[in-house]
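Here's what a typical entry looks like (Heme chaperone HemW):
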Amino acid sequence: MSPALPDGDAAPEDGALPASVRDGAHDRALGVYLHVPFCTVRCGYCDFNTYTATELGGGASQASYASTALSEIALGARVLRDAGLPPRAVSTVFVGGGTPTVLPARDLAAMLDGIRDAWGLTPDAEVTTEANPDSVTPESLAALAAAGFTRVSFGMQSAVPHVLATLERTHDPRRIPDVVRWAQDAGLRVSLDLIYGTPGESVGDWRASLDAVLAAGVDHVSAYALVVETGTRMAVQVRRGELALPTEDDLAAKYELADELLTAAGLGWYEVSNWARTDADRCRHNLAYWRGDDWWGVGPGAHSHVGGVRWWNVKHPRAYADRLARGLSPAAGRETVADDAAQLERVMLGVRLAEGLGLGALSDAARGRVAGLVADGLVDGRAALGADGERRVLLTQRGRLLADAVVRTLTD
């Protein structure tokens, strides 16, 4: 089961936004996240809001999903216009899931066309879809590129069969070089997404996965430590003693190995869990989240943020489709982010970036603690002194491993 939606205020049935969202809108980019809640199977570690094809029917089915999502896209355009926001073309689109590419390429293209019709796309718009390696063909990738997609993010997770089996992933790791080549031949940028810390994964296994990534010749890599969420099948296995979680030292060693090998291959970190070969290879959509821009989240359970107002849609695809069919917003609740919460998020997200966080964003008390973080080897001393310009909190490699502790120090 995916996690419960957050608590919040009731959302208006028409989705109307307060006038406050107009403040500073000219300085914020607009992105769209589009959630496709379908997978062929549900992996044992996954707690995302996903469903298999046989679980849903009617207006919530895979066949009707594109039409339903287009209804929310049209609603979103009306809501932003009625709120008095300036016209802004969408600069990034990210289609996630689930496995978006279980839908036909024509459906993904239709939803992108709907976004283009509703808001417009900037000339250099980044348009990404997630995909599983076993859910694409050369033809489907070429069709996505022709429709305007510019990037694909493959959920590789591991190159080692027994690790994939523990995660209950179904793809053949030998397929990775093929799908990367197909995507690149279609003109798409490619990211490979990895998970480290799977029960039973050795450091040698992890090195094999990193070597496979580098051999594939991609220009972007994401690597996240496995988090075993309550309510998943894997959580039950851990609780029963069937699987043993790795130690913190094991996770740290694997992160350090990833950073070492990726950096040596010319991919620099730009966010704690993300590496790219050049600035152009960075995921601009995720950077928009980390920098506090606006985005509209389409789909069941999707979250949105516009001008300090955050809301989230009903989770179940049937409830989502029903509300839209009745002309209602699918939002289940919303909140206006308070100043103290906004400051916490600004610090929490800003320090994770390789550009660092300017000391001016910190309270006087927090600025006084930066010297201690430098002494502990968690923050780069030259950046904190402003050796290259603005004084910044810039994490060292050790600081990246202890980023949560740095954030607590700067916000308590």
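The longest helix spans residues 62-82.

More examples are in the samples folder.
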